[in-house]
Design a protein that fits this description.
alpha+beta; 2 domains; 9 helices; 6 strands; about 10% strand; elongated
Length: about 475
């Protein structure tokens, strides 16, 4: 035979062998690209074109809002209050609820990494030593626990084993990838939940701070009213001493002074409770923050509120983004559930050294290798797979309804704020008029009382029977 033909034959055979291997790898890779279950698509949502339809008068002109811009990241700086900025930054750094939410985000990310581990081969190293004695009354070699060999019945021998085990599940139907997709969406939802908690924390600190300053304002007003009533009591007492009025007016004035004096410690208590709440939000011990007394009118600033466009709200609200990520995870779980109906294909293998003589444990002649595919096809598992799929589909529909409800609630909250801005501007105008009228009425009543034209009851006119002072 021609040696050149022999060489050419083996060359062609080797080329075909490698081409077969390459084709097999490409085929398996194409199967790996298969994903069962529906791909996620953002649900359609009814979004208004502008905010005018959500106001009471059908327009946003005249309100302290801007539509063309969105809030900054540090939006609380618009209040121009360094003390408030320090409290919010301290709360964002030390609040325990927010820190706990941050650890939940790390946990969700770790779960995502663990969910994708099934896409890679699993390797493990095993080593063992076994002392074996063959039964004298059992002529057939056992199929487990001992190695096959020619040891006679009643023989004693050692078994040394060191192996490297391999298992690689081929994700042909996308079960592992859908699971990883779901965990990834849930991890992003955890991040959005942390942002929502941070946003709520900032809101609570801001509201608590201004409520504290409101108590300071009320305390200042109560002390001012108390000083005025004490002055009135001195005048009334002097008039009663010379017989111009009866002692009944004196007692009435003393009652009013006592009622107003009792308000001062109650307002101090409420202020202390509010400060403790701020300290809890800031993650510090009670009575740690040094918050000096400041009236509300000295710290409050009405900023221009940037609300952006209605379509921007779906991308800015962390609660909406959180629900959408949960919806993505529920959608991916449907594909994961459907993959359980299909066979599981895995490549398994083990290789190592096995011998009964320690001196020859790692010799090449002691090698032991087995490799091959395995297929597991579910035939009958009761209602398990069907129930798993139904649960995944119903949970998706639950998340879908909750997602739509979250969007509606977000627009409702914006509409409530727009209505509040509009009505409170009108309310503030009438309250200013009310305060001015009350001051004028009190001055006229005091003049008439000093002239002896009216009794002290005309000075102390209010629905609750106490001396009226504008608050």
């Amino acid at each position: 035979m021609n040696p050149w033909l022999v060489c050419e034959f083996f060359t062609i055979r080797a080329s075909c062998h490698w081409w077969y291997r390459l084709t097999l790898v490409v085929f398996v890779a194409s199967l790996q690209a298969c994903l069962l279950g529906p791909d996620y698509h953002t649900p359609d949502s009814a979004v208004p074109q502008n905010w005018d339809t959500m106001t009471m008068q059908g327009e946003t002109t005249g309100l302290l809002v801007t539509v063309g811009s969105v809030p900054e990241v540090s939006w609380w700086h618009m209040f121009e209050n360094e003390e408030l900025n320090h409290l919010i930054e301290q709360a964002l750094e030390r609040n325990h609820d927010l820190r706990q939410a941050g650890f939940r985000v790390l946990e969700a990310r770790a779960l995502t990494q663990g969910a994708g581990a099934g896409l890679y081969p699993n390797l493990s190293v095993n080593g063992s030593y076994t002392r074996v004695r063959r039964s004298e009354t059992f002529l057939v070699s056992p199929t487990s626990g001992t190695a096959p060999g020619f040891a006679p019945p009643g023989a004693n021998f050692n078994l040394w084993n060191a192996s490297l085990d391999l298992r690689w599940e081929l994700d042909l139907w996308g079960r592992i990838r859908r699971s990883q997709e779901a965990f990834s969406a849930e991890a992003f939802a955890s991040e959005m939940n942390r942002r929502a908690i941070a946003l709520s924390l900032i809101s609570e600190v801001g509201q608590g701070y201004f409520r504290l300053r409101e108590f300071d304002e009320q305390l200042e007003i109560a002390k001012h009213n108390l000083a005025l009533q004490q002055d009135s009591l001195s005048i009334i007492q002097a008039r009663a001493d010379v017989g111009l009025i009866s002692d009944l007016d004196v007692k009435r004035a003393e009652i009013l002074v006592s009622e107003t004096a009792a308000q001062v410690p109650e307002l101090r208590r409420l202020r202390s409770v509010q400060q403790h709440q701020l300290e809890l939000l800031s993650g510090v011990q009670p009575n740690t923050l040094a918050l000096e007394v400041k009236s509300l009118r000295h710290v409050v600033v009405q900023p221009i509120i940037p609300i952006g466009l209605p379509a921007d709200l779906l991308q800015r609200r962390p609660d909406i983004l959180e629900m959408e990520e949960n919806l993505k995870a529920a959608n991916a779980r449907i594909g994961e559930a459907r993959a359980h109906f299909f066979p599981t294909v895995a490549l398994t293998g083990t290789g190592g050294f096995q011998t009964s003589e320690f001196e020859q444990w790692f010799h090449w002649a002691s090698r032991n290798v087995s490799v091959g595919p395995s297929v597991s096809l579910p035939i009958f598992e009761g209602y398990t797979n069907v129930a798993r799929l139904e649960v995944a589909e119903t949970r998706y529909h639950q998340m879908l309804e909750q997602y739509k409800h979250t969007i509606l609630n977000a627009f409702r909250e914006v509409a409530d704020v727009l209505s509040a801005l509009q009505t409170r501007q009108e309310q503030l105008v009438h309250q200013h008029r009310q305060v001015q009228a009350a001051q004028d009425a009190r001055e006229l009543a005091e003049i008439r009382y000093r002239q002896g034209l009216v009794t002290y009851l005309d000075v102390c006119w209010t629905p609750n029977g106490s001396c009226y002072q504008p608050n």
